[in-house]
């Protein structure tokens, strides 16, 4: 052990000497991450146009309505990503708590006259020029920036139960505010998931987390089965979603319609699909451009198309993991870990919903699904990750 520590000190001193000379240390920028991101966005725009051309023509008399709006948000997102990537991410340490409380304040505005209800869900704030903002998306970034500050301040205390509970408390406050103020259970789950993954990454022991996760899954599965056996109908929309998930055919007229049509689309695509633009289910599926767009990818491009999507997401997550592992300090590493957790959770949960492995949650597929607020803030997160990558130093 003493020898290893001595070797590490010697390597660090060697890099420091080279940096002082200014010849052997280069700044790093993850162009691979940027390239994968551009590929994902381009793929998403193509699939969005293919999915919505017919419905947009019927609803707005413009087949490119959704495509042009999404293109505008991505253009703004790239500008924001460029600006954020230039910022030294250590600045967020001073502002993390203020951003955290600002996100809660913005969610509270949903309950004021500024709040806007869309399709029975009150989750948005009215903006000028007919635009709207979903403040729960701000909360995701706020948690990604704030929880690492807590963990770094706790130091070795994070290894204790008291330290873990402190972090879970702040993550739980954000999740409860999301649920109570915007009635958005899926985002609350993602916020808590990001918090738990950060704790898991910094904690030296893995076994307790595995035991807790397995026990939780068993309890949830048992609870769902009991509800399915006891309840036949319910006035609570979340319980209805569980009942629809357990028996979509039996509730085809009460909420299972979209799920069934999505499964039909997946099954009819085969390996290479029907061809781009040839989907039949997109003509009858409601709001297909949001959380069910992957089913149209399956129908038009088949299993091959889904493999391409999964490979692109795999590469994106790999590059985020690379940046997290090589970040100059703990804070930068944890911030990128939070971004990794956010993207990974949304991808996994969306795929699980589309294939009916879990009840419908309303979680969109990052960079593929339609959504202005989510696209903008995802691009900001990518800018933060690229900003961390700019601080990585490589010794030649």
- Which parts are unreliable, with pLDDT below 50 for 5 consecutive residues or more? 1-5
Strand content: under 5%
Give the helix proportion (percent range): 55-70%
Counting DSSP E segments of at least 2 residues, the number of strands comes to 5
Largest sheet: 3 strands, antiparallel
- Number of continuous helical runs: 13
On the 0 to 100 scale, the average pLDDT is 85
Alpha-carbon Rg, integer = 23 Å
Strand order of the largest sheet: 2-3-4
Report the span from N to C terminus: 27 Å
Strand/helix succession = HEHHHEEEHHHHHHHHHE
Structural class: mainly alpha
Shape: globular
Identify the notable features of this structure and list them briefly.
mainly alpha; 396 residues; two-stranded antiparallel sheet; 5% strand; three-stranded antiparallel β-sheet; 5 strands; globular
């Amino acid at each position: 052990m003493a020898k290893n520590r001595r070797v590490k000190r010697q390597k660090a001193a060697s890099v420091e000497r080279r940096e002082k000379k200014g010849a052997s240390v280069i700044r790093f920028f993850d162009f691979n991450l940027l390239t994968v991101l551009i590929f994902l966005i381009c793929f998403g725009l193509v699939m969005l146009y293919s999915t919505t051309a017919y419905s947009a023509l019927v609803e707005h008399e413009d087949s490119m309505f959704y495509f042009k709006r999404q293109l505008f948000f991505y253009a703004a997102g790239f500008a924001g990503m460029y600006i954020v990537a230039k910022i030294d991410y250590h600045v967020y340490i001073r502002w993390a708590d203020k951003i955290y409380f600002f996100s809660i304040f913005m969610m509270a505005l949903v309950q004021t006259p500024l709040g806007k209800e869309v399709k029975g869900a009150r989750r948005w704030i009215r903006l000028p020029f007919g635009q709207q903002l979903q403040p729960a998306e701000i909360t995701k970034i706020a948690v990604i920036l704030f929880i690492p500050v807590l963990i770094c301040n706790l130091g070795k205390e994070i290894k204790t139960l008291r330290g873990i509970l402190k972090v879970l408390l702040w993550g739980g406050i954000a999740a409860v505010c999301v649920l109570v103020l915007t009635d958005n259970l899926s985002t609350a789950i993602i916020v808590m998931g990001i918090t738990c993954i950060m704790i898991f990454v910094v904690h030296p022991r893995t076994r307790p987390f595995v035991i807790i996760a397995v026990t939780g899954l068993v309890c949830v599965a048992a609870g769902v089965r009991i509800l399915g056996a006891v309840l036949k109908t319910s006035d609570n929309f979340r319980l209805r979603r569980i009942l629809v998930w357990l028996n979509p055919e039996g509730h085809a007229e009460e909420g299972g319609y979209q799920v069934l049509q999505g499964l039909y689309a997946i099954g009819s695509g085969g390996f290479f699909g029907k061809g781009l633009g040839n989907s039949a289910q997109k003509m009858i599926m409601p709001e297909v451009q949001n959380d069910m767009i992957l089913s149209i990818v399956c129908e038009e491009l088949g299993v091959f198309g889904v493999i391409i999507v999964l490979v692109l997401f795999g590469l994106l997550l790999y590059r985020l993991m690379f940046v997290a592992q090589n970040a100059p300090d703990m804070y930068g590493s944890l911030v990128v870990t939070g971004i990794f957790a956010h993207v990974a959770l949304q991808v996994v949960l969306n795929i699980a919903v589309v294939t009916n492995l879990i009840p419908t949650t309303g979680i969109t597929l990052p960079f593929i699904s339609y959504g202005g607020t989510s696209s903008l803030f995802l691009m900001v997160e990518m800018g933060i990750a690229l900003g961390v990558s700019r601080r990585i130093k490589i010794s030649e």
